[in-house]
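Q: I'm teaching a short session on how sequence maps to structure, and I want students to see two examples side by side rather than one. Could you give me a first protein with its sequence written out and its structure tokens following it? Keep the formatting plain so it prints cleanly on a handout.
A: Of course. Example one:
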Amino acid sequence: MSSAELRPKINKIILDNFKSLVDFEMELAAFTCLIGLNGAGKTTVLQAMDFLSQLMNGRLTEWLKQRDWKATDLLCNKLVRKRTIKFSVHLTLNNGQPAVWNGEFNTLAQRLYCSAETVTVSDKIVLKVAEGKYTLASQTALSPIPFTYQGSILSQLKDSVLTPELLNAKQTLQGIKSLELLSPHLMRQRARQADDVGVGGEKLSAFLASLPETKKQAIIQKMKEFYPKFVDYYVSSIQAGWKKLNIREGYVLEDQGLFSTPISTEARHINDGLLRLLTILAQTQTDHSFLLFDEIENGVNPELVEKLVNVLLNASQQVLVTTHSPMILNYLPDEVARESVMFIYRTREGHTKATPFFTIPTVDYKLGLLGPGEVFVDTDLTALVQELNVEQRPS
């Protein structure tokens, strides 16, 4: 594959002062799976990724309102004097060049913007924001910023003024999609026009209606692999432009061995697992660069988990999931598990940290004898946290 055909990739995130993420650093693979005890901060990591995307999209007010948060809720409550969130995102662009986006987000400023930013490509600064001024690669001096914006200045700058590398970095970060709040109740709701689903799966019906026929057929074929009785789905329009989602299923006539006329059922009467899988599969057909799912096994029958893992491992997007299920890990090849499974835990100070699970010596030894999921079951996570905290104490 030539460098021109490479997909951009987010390699690492670093955050400081975002909730429990203090001096937090984590590597990201094509597929990354977070495990750990309840309350360790797995969901916080997903929220932080979503936060970075919203900075690049410039939708902080809308995002905070959707989650019923205030900007100060994003801060670590143990660092009372710090009012800014610092971050760094390391990427590989579609031309193979490394890029880094660094910034500081001021939670006290009413504008909710990044007070400082730099983007470097192959160690060359192509964007800088400081003290109310900015410069692009084509400019030699910092210029006053003549407009207001939220998040990153890149959310406001027109694509036409950006270099191809800067535009690629911008679009990759904008393409992070979080569905960590997926809710069957929201997925069942009727909706009007929408070009995507919400963080909880709302507007699913309108989103599916907007997809081209080729993507619709790809989703239907995948759904049939999960549910042999699944025939297809269709979205019908009702009054005032509202869309309702319908699922059609076929059943065998026992006396004839033939399928009956498909039975159509509106989404509000469909089981949770089917709707959840439909939403996940639909997202793999989007142009998003990165998909985030919390507790990916929720509502999914155990016999379908392997198929779901295979879909996510082969998705065109990067994928980050959390799980409490050893079944998810059991369907990962050992080499993938070593790279992709991250153990999330809290330090004595309550800060969230991440470490590759299968590089921990006691865990690595077990992987030579057991499958990844079996190692997970055989490991006392509470004792492992204590072990890691002892190792990190200053001598």
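Q: Perfect. Now a second example for contrast.
A: Example two:
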Amino acid sequence: MKPAVFLDRDGTINEQMGYINHLSRFRLLPGAAAGIRLLNEKGLPVVVVTNQSGLARGYFPPELLAEVHAQMHRELAAAGAHVDAVYVCPHHPEAKRPEYRQSCDCRKPRPGLFRQAASDLGLDLGCSYLVGDRWTDLKAAANCGITGILVLTGYGRGDLAYIGPGEETQPAFVAEDLREAAEWIVKRTSDK
């Protein structure tokens, strides 16, 4: 069992622009590849966990989601970085597409994606980290016993100002971006 770093996708790795309904809308955030590369160099598995209800809502087909993830892998590889796995929740209780219409255990903040990744990859959730730009990500981390980190990219700055003050769950660290979050994680794991 080993620790891992779980990453939200939209707003954490790539620009938050609502639904990525065309490949041209996928853009890595500055510092994202460098942060992931730093985690790779430390030997920490990096796992993307992402809600993609746009599939359920019929905003884009599964093929586009696969193309977006292939593009993410290519751009990260070009910068000397990689993610070890990608876990997606395509569901929504009010989905337009019936095959995705369900209340599932994998939609963040529920723990299903994390538990599946832990089982598949031999990960210790209690020693792991989650980096995301939404309070939903932080709640998912808390639901799994994972240390939650908020980045101020994507929705992060607004969530910190307007949602966070009323929430019981709070981040262990607030970072400007994924690179700063990765530096904090590497320092913490080096100190152990």
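Q: What should students look for in example two?
A: Point them to this: The chain has a mean pLDDT of 95. Also worth mentioning: Residues 21 and 94 are 19 Å apart (CA to CA).
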